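job 3f2a | input accepted
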Amino acid sequence: MIIRGHRRSQSKHSGMLSLELVLVLPLIALVLFAVCEFGLLFSGRQSLVAASRAGARIASLAGATEEDVNRAVEEHVDPVLWQDLNIDSQVGRNSGDLVVVTLRLPMTSVSPDLLKFVGLSLRDQDLVAETVMCKE
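job 3f2a | predicted structure (136 res):
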């Protein structure tokens, strides 16, 4: 009779593990998607910062043109991202002028919109990198 009582308690709790999995699995998936999306966005932002700095370095040299800046930025950005990239550069004319290179890239071109079903969409959001230097 003791064995029967033990079996009855096991049958009462046999569905608890499945219920816990159903409740916790969406939260784990949400955290996993958020970490993946953040990692992709962080990597894309670092790439933009490096490209912006390279463009500003070239723009700070005497005789540099906007085409030179665009070429330097293009060398540091992944070719897949190049088509969506917006480059705004202000190349100073005289020594001591400020040189500004601003890069804008839609977040959706860097990362898939994994959290849009939760209401955290990347649509109409941009990654921005701006570097300011003095002209030599």
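job 3f2a | The mean pLDDT is 88.
job 3f2a | closed
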